[in-house]
Fold each of these.
Amino acid sequence: MTSPRRRFLSWLGSASLLGVASRPSLVPLTRLPDHRDASPHDAPIAETWDMSWTSRVTGKYKAAFDSPEVAGGAALYRATAWCDQYKEVYGAPRTEMSPVIVLRHLGFMLAMNDAFWSEYEVGKRLKMRDDRGRKWATTNPLGSAPAGAKADAVANTIPGFIAAGGIVLACGWTFGGAVSQIAARDKIERAAADTKARSMLIPGVILQPNGIFAVLRAQEAGCSYVLAS
C-alpha cells in the first residue's frame, strides 16, 4: 500500500510543481501561544536537517511568515515591513527583530534561483507573467535585484533579507518534488537530480523536513504566526 507521504510526494511532482489550476484549499495553521522567550527544546538526534537557525531566533520581537503561495512575494514584503514599522513605532533596531519566512507548497518556488525558473518554466507552470505582462516570467521575482539597485530594492530580495539577518526556510517535501521533476525532464538518476536541485537553491535558504514542521518549529522558538498569502 502506498504511504500517505509517498502519495503526497507523487502529487507534488505531478501537480504542485506544474501549477495546476485546481488544487486543495489552503487552511491557515493553528497559531500556538505567543512566546516571548522560547522554552528549551530537544536537540536533533541526527544531523540530517540543519536546525542551527533556531539559535538565531533571539530578537526581542519574533515572527514567522508562512508562505504557501508565491502571492507576489507577500511573505518577504510583510516581513521587511514589520521590521521597518517596529523601528518607526518603537525605535527597535534590526538586531531586535527575528523574522522567519517559510516557503512551502507553491511558495517554495521562491526558494529556487533564476536558472531553475528559466530551465523548468516555472512562470509558465504557475501562470506568472513578467513585469510587462507579455511573456511568462523566467526569473524569480525575489531572487535578485538589478545591478546598482537602491538599498530598498536589495532588501526586498531573498538574498538581501538573509544578509540582513532574516531566516528563510523551505519545505523539504516540495524540494523532493523539484528533484523528481529534474530527474524526469533531464532523464538523470535521482541522486544527480538532487545535487542539481540543491545547486539551484538560493544560497542561505535552509531546507526543513517540510513546511508545516518549519512553521511549527519557528513558533516553538518563540515566533508569532503570520499567514502571508
Amino acid sequence: SRLKVLDVKVRGITGNLKFDANPSTDLLARGAQWRALLQSASQRPILAFASSREGEESEFLKAYATTVQIKSASDATKSVVCETVLLIVPRHPQRFDAVADLAAQQGLQVSRRSAWPGDVPDEAAAQADVWIGDSLGEMAAYASAAHVALLGGSFAPLGGQNLIELLACGCPVVMGQHTFNFADAAERAQEAGVAERVVNMAEGIRAAQALLADDAQQSQRSQAAKAFVQANAGALQRTVRALL
C-alpha cells in the first residue's frame, strides 16, 4: 500500500522472505546441547517466552505461578521451584536487567546467559528456575533448546514478534490474540497445527504445559514446524527471478 501511494507499480507478491532465513547450524547445535545438559541434570523441559515485551514478563510469571503446581522454595537446600525451566528472552536488550530482577523478586532462582562460562550452562544454571536470554544473535539457540515457546508481543496489543524464526528451529509456538505484524504467517501456522492461539496468558501456560506433558506430540509438532517453514520458503528466489 505504501508503494502504491508513491505511484509504484506492484507486479505481484512472491511470499514472505522470512521463510527463507536459515537458522545457523552452530546455534541449533548449541541449543540442542543446552537442552541435553539440562535434561541430564534435572530432567526438566524448557518453556520459552521468546521476544517478550514490557509488561508481558510479569504477566507470564504470575500466570505460571497460579496455573502450575510449583514446589516450595527452600533456602537451606536451594531446591528447584519450577517444574520446567522458564527461558525468558526479552525483545529489547536494555530491559535485560529489569527482567532478571523481576524474576528474582518472585523468589525464583535466576541464571543469566551472559554469566555462563563459555557457551555451556553451568551447575547453577542447571538448578535455576529461570534462564534469562540476555545475549544478542542467539535466538536460534534459544528456540532450539526450548520444547515450546510463547510468542512475545502477542499477549499485549503489540502485533506479535517473529514466529517464523521459532518454527524454523523446530520450536512449536503458543501465541496470544495479537499477531497483526505476522497475520498471514500466524494464520497459516495455526492451520498447519504448529502454532496454537489462546485467549490469554493463563491459557497459554496451560497449552504449553499440555504439550510438555506429551513427548510424542511435542516431537511431532517440532518436526511439523520445520516442515511448515520449508514448505513456505521460496519467496527469495521468486523475487530474484521477477527482478531479473
